[in-house]
Amino acid sequence: MTVMAPYRSPLGAGRDGFAQLLHAEWTKFRTVRGWAIGMIVAVLLMVAFGLLTAGGTNSSCQEVGSSGPARHGAACGPSFTLGPAGEPVTDSFYFVRQPMAGDGTITVRVTSLTGLLPPTSTAGLSPNGPWDTRPGVQEWAKAGIIIKSGLTAGSPYAAMMVAAGHGVRMQWNYTGDTAGLPGAAGPANPRWLRLTRSGDVLTGYDSADRTHWTQVGTVTLSGLPRVVQSGLFVASPGYTQGGQHFCIGLCFPGGGGPTQATAVFDHVSGSGAVGGAWTAGYVGSPEVPGVGSYHQAAGMFTVTGQGDIAPIPAGHGGAADSALIVSEFLIGTFAGLIALGVVAAMFITAEYRRSLIRVTFAASPRRGRVLAAKAVVVAAVSFVAGVAGAAVALLTGTAITHARGYYLYPVSGATEVKVIAGTGLFAAVAAAGALAVGAIVRRGAAAVAIVIVAIAVPMFLAISRAVPLGAADWLLRVTPAAGIALQQAYPEYGQVTGYSYTPQSGYYPLPGWAGFLVLCGWTAVALGVAAYLLRRRDA
Amino acid sequence: MTQAGGSDPITPSITPASSITSTTRTPPTWGGVPDALHAEWTKLRTLASTWWLLAAAIALTVAVSAAVAAAFQCSGGPAACAPAVTGGDPAKISLTGVDLGQVIVALLAVLAIGGEYSTGMIRLTLAATPRRLTMLAAKTITVAGWALVAGLVAVAGSLLAGRLILPGRGLSAANGYVVPSLANGPDLRAFGGAVLYLALIALLALGVTTAVRDSGVAIGLVLGLLYLFPLAAAVIPDQDLSRHLQQIAPMSAGLDVQATVGVSSLPLTPWQGLGVVALWAVGALLLGALVLRLRDA
Asked: How far apart are alpha carbons B205 and B112 in whole angstroms?
């Protein structure tokens, strides 16, 4: 019996490194024509669905712009007011004002904020009939002092106010909102408010006793004219009853309607160039004609008004219903993900079907590393496909919308980049998960079905109103579909009520990073189980 | 059939047998479908996955229906929970599980022929049943029968879940709802239609798989076809386009048959909706038959 010397590869050390494995897997991927086609199909599907939305807008645009600034070349301008940043806003409030020239300060004490709400039942409410009411104040009814560049709805402003249910706030240019002193204002609990203009810089202060002042916020309103309008204002937004948590399929609006608020101000004082008589009236127009009044006696101002000074959240069902949103251009993401999921799952199940997996494991016996290399290849390719699809869909959708003269909710360039990169990350991690499922079940059809059920079906159930809204939110929190949160392009506003932030309107229940972490968690678990099973089972 | 069979060592012993068959039993009764049917049924019956998928389809459908029914809660009394306020449709809610159960039904149909292509079994099948359309007809009948049984049990379970759960969740007779019951005409149509819908989805999946001949791609295509159109329809702002999509998409149209509330505002009448799914299924089967006839296996 002879002792044989063990075989030693003539190749140098390091030839079986991860880089070589990656190269091998990349070679396998790029040389299968069907997988390249699958990737191209994924991108095309994302773009096609985006074009379907952007190109198919006809009837959503019926009213021609009325109160908003004129938009040149617009075939169908927005029927809502646009704010300084070009975003839809509500700007309707009762304003007791004086012109203010140059720098100055206005100080006031708010001693009461009360109001009227619509009846609990919609039965007695008719648009033209008597306005049936009950005492109560809307939580975002607001009263305070404002400095505004002009009387045009949508013009820049900064304001210090008492909100009925949210304490003292400083708000500016519709979207800005900072909290001051908490608690409701009342005779026993008055609030002092001060607003100072110095050039383009406006600073708000609040105080409970007129001696100790706290700065709430400071903002710069660039381009403010020398003469601005300053004074007292009252607004009270419409009231929406209950949520839509029971709403399925057909949805009927619950109770709700216009409200009004009345505030009592005293110790009104101004420094700087404030002077002359007070003028009162609406900026914008009230919901109910005739609501809005002001009464001055012995230095005490009693002001009643309705309306709101606030942003209109993106999406449908709100006042800017006809506006398009960018998430509509991205609905093809799920179509793309299905194509990517098929390719990613089959990247390993096809090896099992053709028994190529045995060659693969013979060449690279460390199975965990094979899985890792495959996951990296699939994720990288899917990232590129996701970014390409989202970028083309978003940019062509935006271009078509603008070319046809429709109004698109504005998004910043940074948001566009975030949404496009987010789609790439969503695609990459989802594809890695699909690969892991393929490694676990080893059959293409079952793997693809599982991936689609995990990613596309929760979104379908949530968006098609097949399940109650509360349950829909949970579906988009706990399933891999949570990754869609990376596509949220518009902020939610805490100072706006009566609007439900739904997936149809591009709002998702988790913040982007949290949704992404949920998706990553699922993929990590799937990869872990796949790695374990690869080692334990025969190939 | 491929030419590879000619070099098979057992071919000589088969040739005389088949020539005898062709002289004594021509033409085969019903185009040979009963025999092929028996063969297909034997293949389907003896696969463990068939019964696992049957159990999974039933369990998933009933579980999702029950979970969705239990997720509703309206406790405001007759005024706040009236059908006109909530828009709640007890039959449709009870059948939500079909939205998910159809995945398993489609999966079985895909595997019924896709599995044969992935293992090469299809060559043996076509050697035994050289009339390819006969084979496809037999598969169609077998898969449809399986889907009808799965659908019948799953839908019956969903109906029972709805009956038991919904009245306690505010969708009660006292609040003005019709508790799901087969004695009620629209409910019978909704539940019976759901069973037919599942069978048609199985046929659609069978046709698509016969055409593309790869299980993974086929299930991706079928589920994409089912879920993507309703997703797009829910998001597209143009109401007309959205409605057209809902009229032509197999899932949106097909599930119209489940509605018992607000039927007049649906994009299609319930039976029209089911007809659209039937058109999709027939179209897919015709495409599959064409590919089966023209291509090598």
From this structure: 10
**Residue B33 located in a structural domain:** no
**Residue B97 at interface with chain A, using a CB cutoff of 8 Å:** no
Q: Tell me which chain A residues have a C-beta less than 8 angstroms from the C-beta of B236.
A: 52-53, 56, 328, 331
Residue B215 near residue A445, CB atoms below 8 Å:
yes
Q: Would B98 be classed as within a structural domain?
A: yes
Query: Per residue in B243-266, is it b (16+ CB within 10 Å) or e — as a string?
Result: eebbbebbbbbbbbbbbbbeeeeb
Closest residue by Cα to residue A238 from A160, A127, A81: A127
- Residue B257's closest CA among B142, B151, B145? B151
Q: Please tell me whether the interface predicted TM-score (ipTM) of this complex is above 0.90.
A: no
Q: Are A367 and A59 in contact (CB under 8 A)?
A: no
Question: Do B258 and B194 contact (CB within 8 A), yes or no?
Answer: yes
pTM of the model: 0.85
Out of B84, B87, B218, the one facing A249 most closely (by C-beta) is B87
What residues in A contact B220, CB-CB < 8 Å? 338-339, 341-342, 448, 452
In Å, the largest CA–CA distance within chain A is: 120
Q: Which of B71, B218, B231 sits opposite A467 (nearest CB)?
A: B71
Residue B122 CB contacts under 8 Å (≥ 6 apart), including other chains = B113, B116, B297
Which pLDDT score is estimated for A241? 55
Peptide bond into B27 cis (omega under 30): yes
**Closest-approach residue (CA) in chain A for B244:** A56
Tens digits of residue pLDDT in B195-211: 999 999 999 999 999 99
Cβ within 8 Å, pair B100-A457: yes
At residue A412, what is the residue type? S
Name residues whose C-beta falls within 8 Å of residue B46's C-beta, 6 or more positions apart in sequence: none
Chain B residues close to A248, C-beta within 8 Å: 72, 86-89, 92-93
> CA separation (Å) from B102 to A474, B58, B70, B145?
22, 10, 21, 15
Residue type, A299: G
Question: What residue in A sits closest to B114 (Cα-Cα)?
Answer: A445
- Ramachandran region of residue A202, left (φ > 0), alpha (ψ -120 to 50) or beta? beta
Task: Identify all chain B residues contacting A459, using CB atoms and an 8 Å cutoff.
Answer: 231
Please tell me what DSSP assigns to residue B26.
-
How many domains does chain B fold into? 1
Report d(CA A309, CA A92) in Å as an integer.
6
Interstrand relation of A191-198 and A201-207 (parallel, antiparallel or unpaired): antiparallel
Residue B261: inside a domain, yes or no?
yes
CB contact under 8 A, B227 and A254: no
Residue B12 is assigned to a structural domain of this protein: no
pLDDT digits (tens, 9 = 90+) for A282-338: 988 777 777 888 888 888 899 999 889 998 888 766 667 778 888 889 989 999 999
Euclidean distance between CA atoms B241 and B120, whole angstroms? 44
| B44 touches B111 (CB < 8 A) | no
Tokens of A270: 């101004």
**Residue B231 and residue A456: Cβ atoms within 8 Å?**
yes
Phi, psi of B124 (to 5 degrees): -65, -45
Low-confidence ranges of chain A (pLDDT < 50): 59-75, 122-130, 242-254
Residue B282's domain comprises 38-294
| DSSP string computed for B48-94 | HHHHHHHHHHHHHHHHHHHHHHHH----SHHHHS-HHHH---HHHHH
Mind telling me how many Å the CA of A101 is from chain B's nearest CA? 46
pLDDT tens across B155-191, in order?
Answer: 999 999 998 988 887 777 777 788 888 888 888 899 9
CA B233/CA B252 separation, integer angstroms? 9
Q: 3-state class of A500 per DSSP?
A: coil
Supply the DSSP symbol for A324: B
* Closest Cβ opposite residue B107 in set A350, A445, A461: A445
